[in-house]
Amino acid sequence: MKTADTAQSDPDFAGLIVRCAPKGKVDVLVALIRPFPPRSRPKVTIAASGGGTLTFDAGMAAAGAAVLLPDEVSAFAAGKWPMTPSLSVMVREGDSQIKGVVALNGLREAYHSLLANCGQ
Length: 120
Prior knowledge:
Blueprint: E1 2-3, E2 13-20, E3 26-32, E4 43-48, E5 53-57, E6 59-61, E7 66-68, H1 72-78, E8 86-93, E9 96-103, H2 107-118
Antiparallel strand pairs: 1-2, 2-3, 3-7, 4-5, 4-8, 6-7, 8-9
């Protein structure tokens, strides 16, 4: 888990989680303090500090306290993100929006270690 930069994040934004998923895959989630309803389908916008912004439709995990990003986000976590100092994240659901910033130092090593151990 990469925790939020509290000086640049909303109080309800906890950070970013990278975890093992079934079939040796890796999930990327946004951790929240204030959960959304479990059946929510939030829009998540991720902007890399080096440039580039992507928006995804997401689902909920962990009783609404974590936003599960689509599988394609794992490719960014493995490829482009380790070269980026930080990410800005915005999660929108209805009229509610939660923003945060996460520093990515150490992500490359952690991701590769996790990936090597996910299938075991």
